[in-house]
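2024-03-11 09:14:02 INFO worker-7 job=invfold-0412 stage=load source=structure_tokens
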């Protein structure tokens, strides 16, 4: 299982990443240890905003890449409604039925 997540940093920027162990990865980001991403180390991760899961790394990487290409406004919309199908409706490369929102 792979997880795609969005973090809000203290400067209100949004970081998107993937992992196989969401709990461990959040501990790394929030503790700012040596395994923390450079971005969240310098921007100080504040809160986990959204998490989706999918069955394989290829799907996770496609969604991560697509989210990273979104405008800040679209990322904020995605965080608000958590519906990836609304954001990627016109993107034939993203089959939104293969992603599941984590509660």
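2024-03-11 09:14:09 INFO worker-7 stage=emit residues=103
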């Amino acid at each position: 299982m792979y997880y795609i997540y969005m973090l809000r940093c203290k400067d209100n920027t949004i970081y998107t990443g993937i992992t196989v162990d969401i709990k461990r990865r959040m501990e790394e980001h929030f503790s700012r240890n040596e395994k923390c991403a450079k971005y969240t180390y310098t921007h100080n991760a504040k809160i986990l905003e959204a998490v989706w899961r999918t069955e394989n790394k290829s799907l996770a990487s496609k969604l991560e890449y697509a989210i990273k290409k979104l405008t800040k406004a679209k990322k904020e919309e995605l965080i608000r409604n958590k519906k990836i199908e609304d954001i990627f409706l016109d993107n034939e490369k993203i089959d939104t039925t293969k992603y599941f929102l984590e509660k």
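2024-03-11 09:14:09 INFO worker-7 stage=report msg="The first strand starts at residue 2 and ends at 9."
2024-03-11 09:14:10 INFO worker-7 job finished
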